[in-house]
Predict the structure of FAD-dependent oxidoreductase.
Amino acid sequence: MWLADRAEGASPPKPLDEDKRSADVVVVGAGLTGLITAVLLARAGKDVLVLEALSVGAGATGNTTAKISLLQHTKLSKIVGKHGPKVGRQYVEGNREGMEWLVQRCAEHGLSVQREDALTYAQSAEGVPSAREELEACRAAGLDVDWVDDADVPFPFHGGVRLRDQAQFDPMPLLDSLIVELEEHGGRLAQGVRVQKVTGRGQGLAMHVRTAAGDEFEVAAGQCVLATGIPILDRGGFFARLKPQRSYCLAYQVPGDITRGMYISADSPTRSLRYAPAANGDRLIVGGAGHPVGQQKGPASSVQELDAWAKLHFPGAVQTHFWSAQDYSPIDELPYVGPILPGSDKILVATGFDKWGMTNGAAAALALTSRILGGRMDWAQTFASWSPHELSGIPKAMQINAEVGLYMARGWVTPVTRIGNRTPDSGGVVSGPPWNLEARSVVDGVEHRVSPVCPHLGGIVNWNDADQAWECPLHGSRFAPDGTLLEGPATRDLTGAPD
């Protein structure tokens, strides 16, 4: 929805001139975290270059529900339960600073923000204990929450946690304002430039990039910030410390009044709701149907169920938009913000926002900028990319990586049972001679055939019939039907994709 009116007639990315292929700091990724980081550094006098593989906001920022909230589903009960109230308070403090920065920025630039209550609610009696647990965790972490037994909503509501005066917005005008300020301070943005490799060179870094037109060259940097959702570099092993999640959103025109407030269910299946102002009347946004990337067969059926739920409780609702987003859940419940490897600040990362990237993304930008410029924020230790906190995530990491091994084996073995030349009705991996695998799909009557082997670590992709895309079940890389890379940690297309 946020990107729909922007794609029409978008101007092609400007090439990166040969004499501008160096910077003090190169920021990879032009989403919320990357652009805030770039602007703050440019304000401080740094020479900053932002490299974006696709277009501004094309990743999580442009595909979010854009809730700016300190009440984040059942997040705090997980953090407090695993790390204790002190860490919970520091996490809230960082998110509060991120929230305040965003809201103040929007006020200063005349950007629309709606202040609404946020609620984590139980949609059944079975969900009440989980919502109650979140209530206690929020109080332990210093949030002024209360419990409400009833709400004026048309869907099942068995009580919930409420945090007043939170916020929601359209994130794209904010990104536009950041680009303007970045350029005013001498910073630069290059779209359609994908970073594929980073190596040390002298006291700095050499970044090997490839443009959308197929040109390849190097960019020199003193430091690098990877604000790419999941780090595109394997060093640090963040791909093994994160679980990629895909979730879906639908927007509707609804007759009559639309529910105010921002709601998300504590129990499954997740139902997330908010409204969004539009030129011809407010829209209802409903989110859910989430699943680990590449690990659910036929996610379109879950999206259809979500659509049916919305139309049941909001009679006359007419769908206007559909989109999906990718988020990364950290093994220890806390974001990873800081050096990609301990002991060196040359390459910094920001990841693991676990579907709450508006406040966490802004907080990460503040923490990264402070680190680069020599400042300090006490709460930032809770966001550290390397921390003793991670010991609490070892059991989860073992489980996630055991699943990765299972999907690696299954991906190579299962297609052998489908030997033949028939293309699946929508998309799937088939085998000719044993082990000669091929990913085949038909989209809008056009057949595509590419290698199913993910160039990241050799996993076999699966077909997502909701998004019509190939997804790697190992670490979440995604590709268009023709094999073109959509998001990493892979940095190259599937073999057989057009140049």
